[in-house]
């Protein structure tokens, strides 16, 4: 889908990215890098239909002659619709020659995360005037082992039902004002049939592979 945006606001976010100083090795740094502004130049230039038509005329003549105009451009991936449940999948492998190698580095992640610096200023289902899009952590999947073998375990928070989240999922209603603290509850570590109560600090020290957050605000 191609849409025309005001160039003055096309790359604006709900909260200023300039205020961020994400620590390397954190989930904030991962999101910051994934949503950074990129310049498309040289062999990465963008095929511009408007420029092509302006230079060669109507499209019916372009296809027959196979002539196109490419132009320098800017590209940025931003969130246009804040989801009720946010799932973050961390890339836990890297290419090492002809082999894949697992990345065991710990990535820091918070109990409450604000997605506003990574959302477009016209983000849908965010109340007008809101400059925060908050999520509370409720689940983590961790993998131990190597690329060839290993074991998956999970951390899950037992908590009370979030009725406002249900409204958002079922009716698409945007939250107006909710708690900005983590949802209260008890964390559990689940490994096959073994379940054990654990502290939040134990969860936050895990080598996360998948992170699950529920929307607060």
UniProtKB/TrEMBL annotation:
The keyword Hydrolase applies. One of its GO terms (cellular component) is cytosol. GO terms for molecular function: cysteine-type deubiquitinase activity. Residues 1-216 form the USP domain. Keywords: Hydrolase. CDD domains: Peptidase_C19K. PROSITE patterns: USP_2 (PS00973), USP_3 (PS50235). InterPro entries: Papain-like_cys_pep_sf, Peptidase_C19, Peptidase_C19_UCH, USP, USP_CS. GO terms for biological process: protein deubiquitination. PANTHER family: UBIQUITIN CARBOXYL-TERMINAL HYDROLASE. This is Ubiquitin carboxyl-terminal hydrolase 16.
